[in-house]
Design brief:
Blueprint: E1 5-11, H1 14-26, E2 31-35, E3 47-52, H2 56-67
Amino acid sequence: MEKDWMIVYSTNQIYLAEIAKQVLADNGMNSIIINKKDSSYNDFGDIELYVNRDFVIEAKALIKEIES
C-alpha cells in the first residue's frame, strides 16, 4: 500500500466495512479494505478501511454519520 493511505475505520464485521466503503465511493472517495482477520479463527483481528490522506477528515465525518 502506498504511504499516502491512512486508516479511517476499523471493525470486526466485513459488512460494516463494505457499507462504509460504499458511502465513501458515493461521495467520490476511493478507499481500500484490508482484512486482517485471522483466517483460522475469525475471532481475532479487524477489517480496516483506508483512504488517501487528503480525504481523512471528510471520510471520518461521513463514517460518523452512518454510525449514528
